[in-house]
Amino acid sequence: MLEDLHIASIVVSTIRNAPVLMFAALAGLFAERSGVVDIGLEGKILASAFVSAAVAYATQNPWWGVAAAMAVSAAIAMVQAFVSITQKGNQLVAGIAINIAMSGLTFVLAQFFFQQGGRTPDLGDAHFSEIVLPGTAALDSIPFVGWLYGHVIGGHSVLVYLAFILLPLVHWVVFHSRFGLRLRACGENPHAADAAGVSVAKTRYLAMLTAGVLCSFSGSYLAIVQSGFFLRDMSAGAGYLALTALVFGNWRPVHTVLGCLMFALFQAVQIQLEGVDLPVVGRIPGALIQMIPYVVTVVVLAGLMAKSVAPKALGTPFVKSR
């Protein structure tokens, strides 16, 4: 029945689904604000997910998994930056090449090292535990307040809190710091930035490095927190959804995160709808339910793409004027 759709579960699930998209979208924000199209988010998420799961399993320490994911994702971002910035290659092709390469390479490496059909073993205790806030037990018996404090505000892993803490930090960096000013200048008018003494190449490299580090948290969260293992193509288009959230948010941190929360909400509703009998239509087939986030993506792109204003130099290699 319709009553089986638990609003409380949807809210909590939305909060727990959002960090995968939030980390990736904020990563893409830095890259694209500098003028580099980051289609390669999907590939970096997959690489980070595999490396974090593999290292966390080997060391039985999730922090080592996150550290390894940061190193690998940053290295991939630097390769992407070299092709896009130094060699002035096609940014879309470079990103797509990374996505295809990581989709195949992670599967092959997982099969080579673990022989479990392209996945890693279950991490067991090598995961981040949920943080129980002080006073949770005392407030648990109070209606709504206990649920709000214990399950909405508390009860999440450290990476969930990191995702939401990063939002005001990223907003400040992009709009209120010297680096943010140079970042936006390179994305809007790199020739003017160069005339003002700003190194466009250096700024874009730093932006891509930052994007690589942030994207690593997305893959780490997916493998270590949400799933507890790595599985081939487990990102399931999260990188592309993050880019859609960027378009939805008009390349602004707060609005972009709101877009991520919207997609996370639809993912939560999708999970709740499975096996539920709805009035008139009855039980919806699982395949149709799984399409919900992607249908929403198409609708958002169709409705907002014309209204969104991307950085003017996005996707255009910078050639220094003589």
UniProtKB/TrEMBL annotation:
A Pfam family recorded for this sequence: BPD_transp_2
Subcellular location, principal: membrane
Transmembrane segments: 6-29, 64-85, 92-114, 153-175, 205-224, 230-249, 256-273, 285-306
PANTHER family: GUANOSINE ABC TRANSPORTER PERMEASE PROTEIN NUPQ, SUGAR ABC TRANSPORTER INTEGRAL MEMBRANE PROTEIN-RELATED
Membrane topology: Multi-pass membrane protein
Name the UniProt record assigns to this protein: ABC transporter permease
Keywords from the named record: Cell membrane, Membrane, Transmembrane, Transmembrane helix
Subcellular compartments: Cell membrane
InterPro entries reported in the protein's UniProt record: ABC_transp_permease
